[in-house]
Input
Amino acid sequence: MRYESAPNRSYIWVRADKAYDHGVLDRHLIMAEDWLLDWFEVELDEPAALDWWFHYVGTGQLRQGSDEVQYSGSAEPGNEDGRAYVKERSSNVWSRDGMQVDLHIANESGALAVASFATFEGTVCSRVESPGLADDPSRHMEGIRLHRLDSKARFIVVYRAGDEPISLRWTHAADGDWLHLSDGRTTRSFTMTNNGLKERVLDENLV
Output
C-alpha cells in the first residue's frame, strides 16, 4: 500500500484482503535507529475470534512497570489450524487502554530484546508453549497470544534489542489517538489515518 524511506525511519504498509474470508488485515511497520514499531489492524464483516501470535527462542518475563504480570487461569486455544500443538499456560485480561506491558526476552548469555505492548481493554494476553524450530522441534518455544472476539482489533508492539524498553504512552485527542514512543532522549508520536501511519512533528503538523 505504501513505502517511505527517510533519514530517521523507514515505513511500510502492507494489506491482505484475500487471506481470510470477509476480513482485511493491515500491517504498518516503522523501523527507526534502535526500535521497530509493529502496528497491526484487523477488520471483519462480523465478530469472530482474532488471535495475534508471537513466538521466540529463549525465556521471557512479562512486566507492567516494575512489577511482574500476575496471571490467573488458563484455557487451551483449540484444535483447529495447528492449535492442538500449542499449550496455553496462563492468561490475563487487559483491564484498560493505554497501559504498557513489557516482555523481556533472554537466553543463557543474557538479555536479547524487549517487546513492549500497548494494551487495549478486553484483550486476553496468554503465555503459550509451542514446538520448537525445525532443527529441533522437541525443544519447545515460549510465546505470547493476544486474543479478542470482535469485528475490529488493533495490536501494537514495539521491539528493541537489549534490556531497556521503549516507553509507550497512549493519548486521545481531537485530532485522533496518538502513540508516543520515548527512548529516554527523544519522544516521537504516531497516529493512524486513512493514508496510513503519520508522525507528528514539532510544529504540530503531520509528516
